[in-house]
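Predict the 3D structure for this chain.
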Amino acid sequence: MKIRLRQLKNKNGTVSLRLDTFMGYYTDAYGKRKAKRIRETLPFHIPAEDSLNYEEEKIQLLKKANQIRLEKEFQLLKNGDYPFSTAQTKKAFFVPYLEGLVAFKISNKKNNEAVWMGMQRWYKLFASPIIQFKSINEKHCASFYHFLQNEAKKSNGTSLAKSTIRLYYQKFYAIVQQAYLDGMIKDLPSQPTSFKTENIKYKTVLKQYEVVALRSASFVNKDVKNAFLMSIEMGIKLGQLRSLKWQDIQHEREEWYIKMPEKTNSKAFFYPIPENIKQLLGDPKPDETKVFPLLRSASEANVQLLKWVIKAGIARHITFESARNTFAYNKVVNNTPVEKIQLCLGHQNLRTTEKFIQQLQIELPKGLVAKLQTPTKEQRFVRQVKNPLSSKIKAQLTAYSYQF
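Done. Predicted structure below.
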């Protein structure tokens, strides 16, 4: 690779001079191999052939242009910004790695293409194309988050939405995590403090006396009341409660079980129903009948719940999610193994359960803290992929741009 001097003939007979730098190949978001060239037209041109002193001017201008080319090439080499070595490029530069990994993520799941491509576009506007892996540290991550918050503007001049900023930064940090797993980054940078504090949404947990008050207060819609109390005892989601049928409840002697659905990384399991919930449900109905037929849409269920909460004398905003939070809180307080909490909540990854518990604002037992702080390598990141890029794709990834 080197900077070449090109001559381009114009319609008026003059010849423009351009510096053309071939920077290798890269793979775009659709997996196509493309060449990347950086072009800069010099601010002078060779006159037309019928002009006076044509040959003399041509020789002088070409000599001047070639001198500029040599100076730029020397400066790039001196600063270490010009990637003549493909092996060095693969190891040193972060942007080609990010582009390759984004392309891989999109090929696996097209639904997230807009988010991945949006993150990549803003990052390339923020960072130098020749930024090296050694520069990806805590300060760099914080700077990119600050850029998304304060400097990134849409085409109409407005700032990005908070939810969009959060999504973009999470995708970027996922790339950083993968680079750390691949050994490209020595130390995994911690996320900015502002990102952690701004995006923590603490969950509402019912106090014991509030649960007692709700049990005591009568309510016309018994399905809403019974479903909410069942969620407090078992941590079942509102969506599962709405679709729950009597055929999903299996009996073995005097024990009742709910067959929880099979997840991607776990098998279906039978969840025992506590005795007090059995009494609330009453006698079994026909198989195709819903257990809570009056539990309709989520919005209607939460409105009905709010009426019951007010009647019970509770002056807080309570939703069906609060019952699930209360279930997890009680399990943690009672030193329930974290794996069992994960199973009951239906989480596929231990990291999800850890975040869920952290948002409960609870002082964790020492044993649970130790377990959450030392996850296994497989549990460390959700859906991590070790060395996802093939050697062929990696060979095509080179740093591809610089600014004169």
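Confidence is low (pLDDT under 50) at residues 81-90, 374-404.
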